[in-house]
Design a protein that fits this description.
With 157 residues, this protein is of the alpha+beta class. The protein has a domain at 36-141: Nuclear Transport Factor 2, Chain: A, CATH 3.10.450. The protein is 42% helix and 24% strand. It is built from 4 helices and 4 strands; from the N terminus they run H-H-H-H-E-E-E-E. It is elongated, with a radius of gyration of 20 Å. The termini are far apart.
Length: 157
Amino acid sequence: MKEDRFLTGILIGIAVLVIAAIGLFFLRREAQTYGPETDPAGVARNYILALQKQDYERAYTYLANIEDKPTLAEFRQPFVNYQGQEVSSTVLDLAELEGRSQETTVSLTLIRGASGPFNSPNREVSLARLRQEGGAWKIVEMPYPFWSYEWAYSEKP
């Protein structure tokens, strides 16, 4: 009888810890707020955050206006269909690189979850290209999964 109470106590303790961890995960995720858009890194961060929050209209406003820009529906489609899961599970570290007065690149370190409990997360360094349009920084190109290869939207630097 005593062992049953001890085992029950352990199981209740584990259940409380699991529920607390899940609650903190969702609370922390909701608590992310948009930052200033005064520099290219801030615009890139807000774009990615908008995609993670599934605020596609806001994310779309960060795109540069070039000839083959997708419509809002074309922009939204890959994230709704198949890229959304990758966007939400990718963590980023941003660092602004040198740039010219009208165009710059931002270094993105993409950290993706490991495929097993004993594997290390995958780290990949990519670049985002931004340029100034009307006094605001706009995105010309981002790495996958924050960009779709379906868009004919890339300009040559």
